Input
Amino acid sequence: MTASTTSPTQLLGYLTFAELAEHGIVGGYLLVNQFARPVEFHCSAPVCPNRTQEILYGPTLRPFLYGEQIGQTLVRQSRLKPKVLLTDEALALGLRSLIDVPLALLRQQGDASDPRQHPDDEVPFDFDDCRLSTSQGFAADQSLIISTLRQLVCGWDVYEPLDRIREAIREAQRAAA
Output
């Protein structure tokens, strides 16, 4: 689904994942405009690592799958480019070093954890009632992320598009079954 009349400077990207027991990991990528309306959507095929990959990649397997294999593929196949990309999966933060779009981890709503308790490779910050993080090497993205969210998120729930992606993934899996 694509709309060519929307300017890329007016788009916000969302990336999330679903782990499906029988199928593996599926990623979903949604671009929305300033009204939170969908402009472009992509869904990956399920990725299920085999035992050899689990052994060879060790603890780097999941960040590789989420960031490089699934996330990077979805972002690169998109025709349009968002001004900022939000994800709710910390394992995808490594994607930022592979793309030229600021990427932030959007923490669960109501997460009252101490921002100092985030992993060393994350730099937490807040936007209104949202708790976000960037990768350590990309903390400079924070000001652009905040200004973009102020510009684009007007009266709608910044978390809600992630729910739409997860529901679209479930629907696509039901349709494929």
